[in-house]
Amino acid sequence: MAAMRRSGGDLFDPILLADKRFHGEGYQEGYNEGGHSGVIEGRRFGSINGAKIGSEVAFYSGFAFTWKCILQNNTDAKSSKKLKTLDSLLGMVGSFPYEDPTYDKLQEDLDKIRSKFKQVCSLLNVQPAFQNSPQAGMSF
Amino acid sequence: MWWGSGAGAEDVFDEEADELRIEQREWKSRMDRRHKEGYRDGLNAGRESTLQDGFNQGYQEGAKKMLAVGQLKGILSAVLSWCQLNRSDPHLITQINQLLSAAAQQEESIFGKLSAAPPEASVGDIMESIEEMGLDPVLEKPEAGCCGNVKGENCCNSSYEVRTCGLDNTASSSQEVCCRTVSDPSGGAKSLKGLCQDCAILLENCGLPMDIAHHFQLQS
């Protein structure tokens, strides 16, 4: 019996080791698989979010630049105020790193751009069509 | 001496053999379980490890893809509001509205593709779906012909697909795909380019500065 107990203690280690080994093998398989699906999942989610922001910001830049060109030869006080606001919006859009999801003030800057755009629209006295695509509601 | 009796020894061995088998089975199922547990843990860990990178990658791609069409919508929207403000010719306004709708559709189609399918499909996946659809003739030149448009994804060289399908008049399934490829404007690049050119012509017709078209490279 004494011999059994001794060898029993030695036998226990391989069991634990095997336990670890099987878990480890499964883990590695899962890790590889999970890493692959994580990239796909993340990319899809990221591309949707990037597309929404990219589309919105690009819209503002197209809108503001076009209006700037329309008004650029007018010299009256009203037009110069409009042009100033348009320039300000264009500056904000131009410096907005819309391609960088890690930018920490993304939402903050985007909100500023949106309110500047609203200001531009009210100054121009227009209500632009297709301002946002139907899906372009922000979700963060 | 208990092993002296033949019958007794057999019984003992049988019992031990049974036990051994049971133990082996238990051992196996235990190790299977450990393997599965490990797999599950690894799956989550692996997923977490790449999710953010994938997101960042996709984000950049998505933002870039929307750039041209978003700008186009902005330009058209500005021109429309300018024309409405000036009470321009209703025909012109209708025309701008149509262009704007087309641009919005284009945008939705790009967006739909981004959210529908994984950005990358392996050659194996595509081959599989081609086989499932019974498009054997296309298989002769898989590298050249299939770049994902089988699943309705963006395809830059759809002309090859169309040509291949066109030659193969016998397989009706090929014809269907062929029609879809032709009618689907989702190829993206070409019809977006067409819209940009239409927009440039519109700007010119409205007497608006050509700076706009140059700035956004509408005619390139």
TrEMBL record, chain A:
Residues 26-64 form the Essential protein Yae1 N-terminal domain. Belongs to the LTO1 family. Pfam families: Yae1_N. It comes from Callorhinchus milii (Ghost shark). This is LTO1 maturation factor of ABCE1.
TrEMBL record, chain B:
Transmembrane segments: none annotated. Residues 38-76 form the Essential protein Yae1 N-terminal domain. InterPro entries: Essential_protein_Yae1_N, Yae1-like. Keywords: Cytoplasm, Nucleus. Coiled coil: none annotated. GO terms for cellular component: cytoplasm; nucleus. Its main location: cytoplasm. It is found in: Cytoplasm; Nucleus. This is Essential protein Yae1 N-terminal domain-containing protein.
